[in-house]
Design brief:
The chain is mainly alpha-helical and about 375 residues long. It is about 80% helix and about 0% strand.
Amino acid sequence: MPFVLYLLGLAVFAQATSEFMLAGLGPDIAQDLGVSIPTAGWLTSAFALGMIVGAPAIAVLGARWPRRRTLLVTLTVFLAVHVVGALTTSFAVLLITRVLAALANAGFLAIALATATCLVRPDAKGRATSVLIGGTTLACIVGVPAGALLGSYFGWRSAFWAVAIISLPALIAILRSVPARSAGPTTIGRFWVSRRLVVLLLLGALVNGATFCSFTYLAPIVTDVTDLGAGWVPVVLALFGLGSFAGVTVAGRYADRGNHVLTLVAGGILLLGWCAFALTAVHVVPTVVLAFLQGGLSFAVGSTLIAYALYADAGSPVLTGGLATAALNVGAAAGPVLGGLAIGAASFRGPLWVSAALVGAAVCLAAGSVRLGDREGPG
């Protein structure tokens, strides 16, 4: 893999850290800026909305620009608004910076996915995709805890400064290493008639929704269902993150083989895993083991589906990347909402059953789709 891909992955790491780190910084932000904690939660909602809207929108707007220029502009905006966020004393300004950061993040990821597939051989798109998505999994393992640690010792603004600083090497790498060539035409009409691509995006949203439905509520599952102390929460979260990184890394090679039967089998195992987790969450050993396994399978299946989407519409990689990013974020936004409703209606095991239901829907959709059996990968 070209070294520039890993630096693009570093930018994705910084952006994912920014997206997730507010979970640990919200109370400090609320106190410092004089707002309530629920109001501070708007920062997370604003970022999610910006990601969903921004990915396809900026992909279309930037499709006629050279990819290097689009990557530079979006990453520069992302870096700059974090500097503004670190300096501001106004909650309204901070909220605006979160929307702008999300728009830039979504646009960057959409273009980066398209760029990554053009920097490697035509049969290596899965591995290139895994490098970028690996940045997200590393953010769960390292970036978010580090941001919380910085916030606890140096204040929440230090985490914003750290994200801006981490983005700098990627900015320099893009300037030096990404070819300044056109992103190619965006053919929206042809794009939307691809039933296979629509199915793959729906599958990605369902699987990612299942992933974040349970990941969001792992802490209360550990403390209230498994009945472990709060000190176990970082351990279980880290295991989930380590599993997700391993899953993305391994899946990269298999995605390039276009083996849909293997992906369907992995989806079935993922479904069984969520059911087993829901049934055995009161026991320590299954909780610890399944946190790692479900993290690995969730991100392995999810990243493979995104790679298949990029193979499915190679003629419009920028728009495909934008819609893939939006699909993932629709799942990431809807999953926690559904999990929260399940907790209110049942118990803290509810999100695990919702995850099982979402993956079950994905498996049924995949099995029932004739087009999913077609080979998008290399011949």
